[in-house]
Amino acid sequence: MGAGGRSNPYEQEVKKSDVQAMKRAPTSKPPFTLADIKKAIPPHCFERSLIRSFSYLIADLTAVSIFYYLATTYIPQLPHPLPYLAWPVYWFVQGCVFMGLWLIAHECGHHAFCDQVWLEDTIGFILHSCLMTPYFSWKISHRRHHANTGSLEHDEVYVPKTKSNLDPSAFYLDNPVGRTLTLLVKLTLGWYIYLTINAAGRPYDKFASHYDPRSPIFSDNERVLILMSDIGLLSFSYFLYRVAMIQGFAWVFCVYGGALMVMNAFLVTITYLHHTHASLPHYDDSEWNWMKGAFSTVDRDYGILNKVFHNITDTHVLHHLFSYIPHYHAMEATKAIRPVLGEFYQSDSTPYFVALWRESKNCLFIEPDESDEKNKGIYWYRSKYD
């Protein structure tokens, strides 16, 4: 009213992007090369600053310390039953900061933290071990995911099933109650199920696990690194056990376990939504190439949490093109490449909790278009069984 009936240009842009995001992503050869995209990005965006990267690490660690102090100092003093309300609030806030720390370790694995690889691996190993993630194991499989994104044969995670390969239980879970139970399992146990038995990962001819140095996920020269990852997890687990012997297991869960569960839920949500959308194609070997795979992902909007999560959420397309760009340059670089990418850039500003339910309903399995005889190697999500 006060603006004389004029609409907000930003709102128009968001609505336009939402409409475009629901259209299928192009699968044709793009009219640009990776060099063209890189040329559009300001050169300083590729520079890693040890001081700047450390500043984000220190900021996150400071936030963890402050929230820990406030929770352990004041929540126990609250009158009954307020602590039962206050602890979940703490878990959510602290879990979001944990997610930020986890993503800094993720940057270490991509050589986006600093120029010294040994320092990146040291920081990443410590952070991920303290967040119950096998650093080297996940670093290796995650890099392979980046090298094979969208490939039905070679991608390492979130490899969707075709209708014929669906588990029979999928049909019975395709209802509100079934989807709720499935999401509950994914958000609470999904991360550890994936690490333990490679659920939702690439099929292997024998048992695959991120904890097993003999797993087919890894090559012979990588097995010692997997063992180191396990030692890191066991060492921190023993530390938690010793603390629990002094403070009690309930105390450890309140100050650490609950926040870790929130972090794991966000980790599954973020990775799932980046690679699951009705607009995204998957390819078999007859159609896949690295560039097509890199565009088989979508940027999402988590509101204020975009900053807490160091913008991995809303700059993921860029991340799959240039994973070594530090997060503090990612927004600028994304803005620079969008005019070049045009319709090849996919984004969706649907709130993440709405999108999580929608994608779990609409992206059940993949199939090629029956009417498209020329592109039988391109698969799209489906939500109907007949």
Automatic annotation (TrEMBL):
Domain annotation Fatty acid desaturase: ranges: 86-347
Domain Fatty acid desaturase N-terminal stretches: 17-64
Protein location: Membrane
Keywords, ordered alphabetically: Membrane, Oxidoreductase, Transmembrane, Transmembrane helix
A Pfam short name: FA_desaturase
Annotated region (Disordered), positions in chain: 1-26
Chief location of this protein within or outside the cell: membrane
CDD domains in alphabetical order: Delta12-FADS-like
Matching InterPro entries: FA_desaturase_dom, FAS_N, Fatty_acid_desaturase
Residues that span the membrane, as ranges: 54-75, 87-105, 224-243, 249-273
Pathway named in the protein's UniProt entry: Lipid metabolism
Membership in a protein family: Belongs to the fatty acid desaturase type 1 family.
This protein's name: Omega-6 fatty acid desaturase
Organism: Tanacetum coccineum
